[in-house]
Automatic annotation (TrEMBL):
Family affiliation: Belongs to the mandelate racemase/muconate lactonizing enzyme family.
InterPro entries linked to this entry: DgoD-like (IPR034593), Dipeptide_epimerase (IPR034603), Enolase-like_C_sf (IPR036849), Enolase-like_N (IPR029017), Enolase_C-like (IPR029065), Mandel_Rmase/mucon_lact_enz_CS (IPR018110), Mandelate_racemase_C (IPR013342), Mandelate_racemase_N_dom (IPR013341)
Domain of life from the UniProt record: Bacteria
Protein name: Dipeptide epimerase
Keywords: Isomerase, Magnesium, Metal-binding
E.C. code: 5.1.1.-
Domain Mandelate racemase/muconate lactonizing enzyme C-terminal: 135-226
Amino acid sequence: MGFQVEAYQQALPLKSVFRIARGAKTQADVVVVTLTDGVYTGWGESVPYARYQESVQSVLEQIDQTAKSLATFEGDLSGVRARINAMPSGAARNVMDCALWDLVAKSQQKSVAQLLSLSTPAPCVTAQTLSIDTPEAMAAAAKALGHPPLIKVKLDNQDIVKKMQAIHLASPESQFIVDANEGWSIDDLKACGDNLKALNVILIEQPLPVGDDAGLIDYSCPVPLCADESCHTREELAYLKGRYDAVNIKLDKTGGLTEAYALAQEAQVMGFEIMLGCMVGSSLAMAPISLLSDCAKYVDLDGPLLIKTDRENGFAIKDGVMQPLNPALWGYPQSQVIL
């Protein structure tokens, strides 16, 4: 029989319009995969991202090509792993990799954390995200969050300091991550760095376009800088050294938990701080990466808070604190699920 794959698209409506520097969206278009060996079934979710030349259709096509070959494997988990690892990094490999980890946890009667020798997941602070709007609207949105410990602020290069001043005034005890999504120039960064530090900004994420960051080598920014779009896998780390202080690890960039775990380990050895990030998706998309929270200085896994209806057994997030993964969702054998 071999391994059987089912892949399908889901549209997850958002609570409100979500705006970043390069556009806006009202729903998350995700791909869900179930992978079965005939006895056990694992599943996963990924988010195809147009910025990386992906679409739902292109991801489904990649999955279909791999699925055909997996049907010839009879109980050969190592062969399945090798075939998935051979896929290009991105959303297709991510959802296949995470579905496989879930299947292995069930078939081997060990949690994914145990399989990777990771510490038992614990509650952690996660950023909560503000999308781009007017200073007044962003301040109101920040206030509505109830003064959480960490807020992530999406900003283009319009009124950077003015917007942050309004947000800081609305939530003065919070710390902030500013995410430019490649929307600034080096002059924008230099003009606002000192002001942002004074406004409790503790990290600036991807200020400059990918490949246009040579100016960071000789610039000592008052606020630590994090590579997001510039960092997909371990291959970029040598280039990023000397330009960025931290790397944002996302499953849809690495191509799944396997590479994300390896990237986190190597990045730490090279002196980078670790940030865990996500695309806008459900708790199923956050589940695998949440297992790495113990090694991360910054966690930004609030995707489930942005969609109208999350998965059953999804993450509990209250006052900026994210509870550990529910064993009934992903990554645990059924014997460890308490009903």
